[in-house]
Amino acid sequence: MSLTHTDQNGHAHMVDVSAKTDSARVARASGRVRAAPATLALICDNGLKKGDVLAVARIAAIQAAKKCWELIPLCHQIPLSGVTVEFELDHDNGTIHIQAQCKTTAPTGVEMEALTAVSVAGLTLYDMCKAVDRGMSIDTVRLETKSGGAGGDWHRGAQA
Amino acid sequence: MSLTHTDQNGHAHMVDVSAKTDSARVARASGRVRAAPATLALICDNGLKKGDVLAVARIAAIQAAKKCWELIPLCHQIPLSGVTVEFELDHDNGTIHIQAQCKTTAPTGVEMEALTAVSVAGLTLYDMCKAVDRGMSIDTVRLETKSGGAGGDWHRGAQA
Amino acid sequence: MSLTHTDQNGHAHMVDVSAKTDSARVARASGRVRAAPATLALICDNGLKKGDVLAVARIAAIQAAKKCWELIPLCHQIPLSGVTVEFELDHDNGTIHIQAQCKTTAPTGVEMEALTAVSVAGLTLYDMCKAVDRGMSIDTVRLETKSGGAGGDWHRGAQA
Amino acid sequence: MSLTHTDQNGHAHMVDVSAKTDSARVARASGRVRAAPATLALICDNGLKKGDVLAVARIAAIQAAKKCWELIPLCHQIPLSGVTVEFELDHDNGTIHIQAQCKTTAPTGVEMEALTAVSVAGLTLYDMCKAVDRGMSIDTVRLETKSGGAGGDWHRGAQA
Amino acid sequence: MSLTHTDQNGHAHMVDVSAKTDSARVARASGRVRAAPATLALICDNGLKKGDVLAVARIAAIQAAKKCWELIPLCHQIPLSGVTVEFELDHDNGTIHIQAQCKTTAPTGVEMEALTAVSVAGLTLYDMCKAVDRGMSIDTVRLETKSGGAGGDWHRGAQA
Amino acid sequence: MSLTHTDQNGHAHMVDVSAKTDSARVARASGRVRAAPATLALICDNGLKKGDVLAVARIAAIQAAKKCWELIPLCHQIPLSGVTVEFELDHDNGTIHIQAQCKTTAPTGVEMEALTAVSVAGLTLYDMCKAVDRGMSIDTVRLETKSGGAGGDWHRGAQA
């Protein structure tokens, strides 16, 4: 087993995928923002009056997915064919759950695009709430499922 | 208490900081990547042979700090006067600790820049190791300290 | 009278503002999107159910203001200290009025940032509605007022 | 009839085009900049001495077409296979006519790319002439024709 | 013989490649940085202690290859399927040799991507060493070979 | 003597300039493109008919100067207060001379911005002429002079 993104000397390269053919691919990632109850209440209130808070985070996430190749140095430029981002407020546990799904038809997968969308959604929520709650944290950003491509499908629960 | 990044109608805006003066500011953020022991061993081996893995993540983090205003929709464009990014491999707990520190002299702070650097460092490590370990997660991305500005200093431990 | 952005040979350059000092500046621009009544009704409905349509256009506008220097080749890189974007639906005349205001403290003005914000808000509205109304147009994108700087204030009505 | 870029809850998403196949597509958009006669004369003079003014606007427009996906939050990343931008000075009516045509082979169309090119050409002309004519406006930015794709062809005159 | 990137009036356009089909393409470019012996020694020392200098230049080069379409106004947006960047220190001649290879499957070639990678690698080396050696120069940035596409193969030695 | 852009472990960082004050700075860089006589003649002809070739390269150079911080990983974000780019065709020696000058008022210099402008001007000329002359090379990209800042002035001739 060895790292794919470095050569035998340990030097970084963009992995050659020229021999791979395009296939339909989907990846879904998730994460959560932990916040104080009062912060969650403010986000909820903003939503009740048709506010922009979750919309801003959703747009930031979609745009970040499209810019993944620019942020992550060795990522390929993948044309996304669809992105969705969902939020769920969990007042009991003081968390905002984030889910992002990305699709493409390409020679390589969109896991990084989905993970980037989740991370930037979390960062954007932090930004908009930081004046009232600097102690927030972004947690458990991880891949949930991926499908398509020669590597086959992967589901978090099924890995054991 | 109300959200600063939305107006009385809940609409997003870039907060007006034109009345604030420049001051020296520092922010430090941290996070961790949880990985399988074999993944940590590969990163460690890469380092032993002078490989690029941690260097790639460090560069990605520094560049992301500079692009924070582009990723986070309501962030101001802050000229950074210094960025450092450090990694620490903790084999016992299967984690890579990430720390980023950003400095500026500006009317508003650099918390988001430091948090963005940590997140993108984590995403870059995920990218380079994902072929061997899709189950990795990025955890506990949070602000550690900030200083400077009218808001005063903030330290994680001191908030209680 | 001659063009400031080209030299005596007609060649483009970024105008030298190194002798100018920072001053507080504000610019406000406006424009309108003309659409079919059914399109306006859909945007209105989306708003009633707390939808994202106007929020997406607002965020796109704010981000475009920050990227103005990248889009307009001879623009200076101006750090914005505040941006607001407002929409008003005028069902009688079948138009969406767009207003953007940008602020900075800089050696040169933010007219282009405000005009870029309005244009990109209009383009984003077109994008989201084009499947139902390809005939929409973006009209009367223009500066309303600017203040600050050696050039003094300017108001549209006062120019005659 | 409903908006395609928001889901049943009104939330924004990047529309899933993964089931669509690539096809050759063309879109042509137009717009005009209204300026004072003296401003048009200066642009004309610049052209007579082989100046850069229209060239700068043309280049800005081509580059903006390539960046459309970055400016318009829900746009797909479309690889353009050709872009042309034309200007026509109409001294009698005090306007500069702008036309842009974009081509691609992709699962979705290039209307937004053509409209963005026209808008940024107009903004760039405004920028270069603003010191002599702040009252300029950008008008009637609209789609003229599109062809290709499942949606079929569309021509402005034919919509009635 | 005429320039392909301008029309019969000399106006710039993005060349229409819509009639061309995708094919596998490779381009390799090279260049060199001339530096004082002491500068080369510092780079070498940095490498001996597993330093980041060459890694930073390599990452900058790979990222620049992906952004070529954004830097070079008339370049098409080409999705790269692989990039490698190599350095060789030549202490006798006081030069660092840079080689970059880019691959794609696209309707047009990747010569500009490879040349951009080499140039940005050189600029990045200059940046990191400029405090000790402002006299460095970047030389002989040129295409070595290209293959694929209707234009056929090209090798530097074979052109005479 | 040691490298400023890496710490004692050889790790890259963005150099901390927070203790430095703003000062007026200027840097001038140069380079040349070597081309076949027929290529130079085509560029010259394009100029005679008021063509865009040199204008495109000039605009690309100015925009690249503004994006230097994005291309060169450890560069600071410097707001440029003026950029000029000049070309001179030397038919006898088969070269196009490129000169770029950048100005700023900032805590650190603009050498990299000027060098990046020259490099991207050269790459853009290569791009527009490559269909007729793949053998072109970009040579002798180097700093000519810099002034301002604690480091003092530097002139190429004066370094011996």
TrEMBL record, chains A, B, C, D, E, F:
Keywords: Lyase, Molybdenum cofactor biosynthesis. It comes from the Bacteria. Its EC number is 4.6.1.17. Transmembrane segments: none annotated. Residues 14-149 form the Molybdopterin cofactor biosynthesis C (MoaC) domain. Substrate binds at L74, C75, H76, M112, E113. Coiled coil: none annotated. The active site is at D127. The keyword Cytoplasm does not apply. It is an enzyme of class 4 (lyase). Pathway: Cofactor biosynthesis; molybdopterin biosynthesis. It catalyses: (8S)-3',8-cyclo-7,8-dihydroguanosine 5'-triphosphate = cyclic pyranopterin phosphate + diphosphate. Homohexamer; trimer of dimers. Belongs to the MoaC family. Catalyzes the conversion of (8S)-3',8-cyclo-7,8-dihydroguanosine 5'-triphosphate to cyclic pyranopterin monophosphate (cPMP). NCBIfam families: moaC, PRK09364.1. This is Cyclic pyranopterin monophosphate synthase.
